[in-house]
Amino acid sequence: MTVPFGREFREKYFAFEDGVVELNHGSYGAAPTQVIEAQMEHIKQKHAFPNRYLRYELFDISKKCRQAISTTVDADYHDLVFTPNATTAVNAVLRSHPWQMGDKIAYLTTIYGACMNTLKFLEEQQDVRLIPVEIDVNASPAENEAALRAVLHEHPDTKLAFLDTVSSMPAIVLPWENMVKICRDRGVLSFVDGAHGVGLLPISLRQARPDYFTSNIHKWMYGTTSCAVLYVDPSRQRQVASLPISAIYVSPSQELSPEESKKVLGNSFAYVATADYSAMQTTIELLKFREEVCGGDQAILDYQNNLAKKASELVCKELNTTDIDNSGTPMAMFTVRFPLQLDPKLHLDFIDFAHDKFANKYKTFIPLATYNDELFARFSASIYLDLEDFKSGVWAVKQVLKDWEVAAKHPKELLEPKLDAMPLGLPC
Ligand SMILES: Cc1ncc(COP(=O)(O)O)c(C=O)c1O
């Protein structure tokens, strides 16, 4: 590695707008310029001869990219496909499942909003029953596992459990591998939402053996938008149709040889209507960037985890607060209790106010959320940040708190966003 991770790395390999300090990699990710440039080349390749690209080249490209990413998640490439994002993967699987009226789906209460909406859709349209597993973000992993066990004990006819590797807001590492085992031992299918998975935590699907797993590539792998990977256990593959169902559809009842069956999932997701496949196609360049420029997956994980630990200490000290971290598993995102005593009825107003100020006035973003009436802030320690950037983040939080105080007295004036640049590396 020629340039160390942090600000110098950001300036050399990423293309952020001047003055922007992206402290929220967790929501949308950000890709290095050379990967975005590779993506542009792939778009040109498609437009140079669309019929050859979409009818022939795409299938070979998809296979090579699935083979490439299979090492990262430790799975057979036949069991992996690409989707534009984790949400599409979740929808493809859950909306393909042959639900019967009254079938039960257990879900963790930390579930991501879009996934919860998909479950609500199934509840309304397919008459499934949703069973919450109350996750206490202050509890130990063993206590949260016990909560899942208790729900499955109470509802032994549960068909599927919807789990997270790392929840979105607040961000905590869930004991997903143990939870998958708990489900398997009881004959309950498991879907693991690993949107924050690959690149954030070491993942071995061969060891964990979930029925379904998805992970975004455009978040913690630093891939370009939009790209996610979906894993489907071989015994479930004939049931899962792409979203939308497109030109390549093989009915689950059609008899195929084992060899033919093995190819159905890969082929049906390789071409899903006329669409942009360029992000998926950058997998090879992305893995090369991680290996050759970053020094490999372990070097990335070490930097992210180490920075998150130091940054969390700094943020907690400067904002006089505490973080939530009961998992004992290091990761790049940390969540702190937001240092503002506020009536929970005003939490959403404050979140709207603060988000607007972060993005439009202070050129940064620190996502806030409320969970069980507590207000939290999440930070992401990515390879293009260093400790100085978190000092800027602390400064921005303090500014927003001052703005909120003033807004209470002069609401109109403060609702006008002003695009002041955030001073970098200020001592807080
Ligand atoms: C836990 C979790 N699941 C799913 C998603 C959805 O990801 P995407 O918008 O890439 O589909 C997110 C996005 O942040 C997430 O945090």
Automatic annotation (TrEMBL):
Biological classification of the source: Eukaryota, Fungi, Dikarya, Ascomycota, Saccharomycotina
GO molecular-function term, one example from the UniProt record: lyase activity
UniProt name for this protein: Hercynylcysteine sulfoxide lyase
PANTHER family linked to this entry: HERCYNYLCYSTEINE SULFOXIDE LYASE, L-CYSTEINE DESULFHYDRASE
UniProt domain Aminotransferase class V: residue ranges: 31-243
Pfam families the UniProt entry points to: Aminotran_5 (PF00266)
Annotated signal peptide: none
InterPro entries, sorted: Aminotrans_V_dom, PyrdxlP-dep_Trfase, PyrdxlP-dep_Trfase_major
Gene3D superfamilies in alphabetical order: Type I PLP-dependent aspartate aminotransferase-like (Major domain) (3.40.640.10)
Annotated organism of origin: Wickerhamiella sorbophila
